[in-house]
Amino acid sequence: SSSRAFDGFAPLAFDLKVHLWGEPDQLWYPAVGIEAFVLTGIASKPFIVGVEPAVALLFDHRLPGDWLLEWNVGCFGTGGSGIPNVLSLPNLGVQWALQKQLTTRVAVFYQGFYNAAGIPYFPAELVSGFGGQWNVTQRLAVYGSYNWSLDDRGSPSGGSSGFTYAF
C-alpha cells in the first residue's frame, strides 16, 4: 500500500554544541564535543512530533586527504503526534558521517543514523543520505542533505537543510 506524501516545514530545533577538546596531531584519539538540543512543536501540522530533547557525545577523526569521520552516541527524545506539548521518552542512538573537504569552504558528506535523531523528525530507524556544507564565513555555515530510509518504517526519503552560527 502506498502512503500519502506531506509537504511542509519540519520542527524548529534549538541546538547547542560545546567543543571539549581537539584531536592531538600525534595521537589517534578524536576531537570530542557534547551537543544538547530540543526539537519543538513549531512545525507544519503533519510534522509535529512533540517536544524531543537530546544529548549526545560527538567524536571527530581527521583522516588523510582532507577526510573527516564523525560518529555520535546519545540519548534522543521520541515524541509523537499525540503528545505535542509534553516531553518525550529517550532512546539511545548512533549517528555517523564521512566528510570530504573539497575547498576551504565547501564539503560533501555521506551520513546515516540508527534509532535516533541525525534528522530528528525522520520517521525511520535506519537512515542514510548525501549532503553538502558551505562555510559562508568562519562562524556561519549553510547545509543540506537528501536522505532515505533503509528499513520499512516511515517515509522512504526526504530532504533537510539549515544553517548554523558559532558564537
Task: Provide structural commentary.
The protein has 167 residues and is mainly beta. Helices cover 0% and strands 56% of the residues. The protein contains no helices and nine strands. It has strands spanning 13-21, 31-39, 52-63, 67-78, 89-101, 106-114, 126-135, 140-149, 157-165. The protein has a nine-stranded antiparallel beta sheet with strand order 1-2-3-4-5-6-7-8-9, with no helix packed on it. The chain is globular.
Briefly characterize the structure.
By secondary structure, the protein is mostly beta strands.
**Count of extended strands:** 9
**End-to-end span in angstroms?**
47 Å
What would you call the shape?
Answer: globular
Low-confidence stretches: 81-85
Number of discrete helical segments: 0
User: Approximately how much helix is present in the residues?
Assistant: under 10%
How much beta, percentage-wise?
Answer: over 45%
Structural class: mainly beta
* Largest beta-sheet details: 9 strands, antiparallel
The helix/strand order is: EEEEEEEEE
> What's the average pLDDT?
81
Looking at this protein, list some descriptive labels.
mainly beta; 167 residues; 9-stranded antiparallel β-sheet
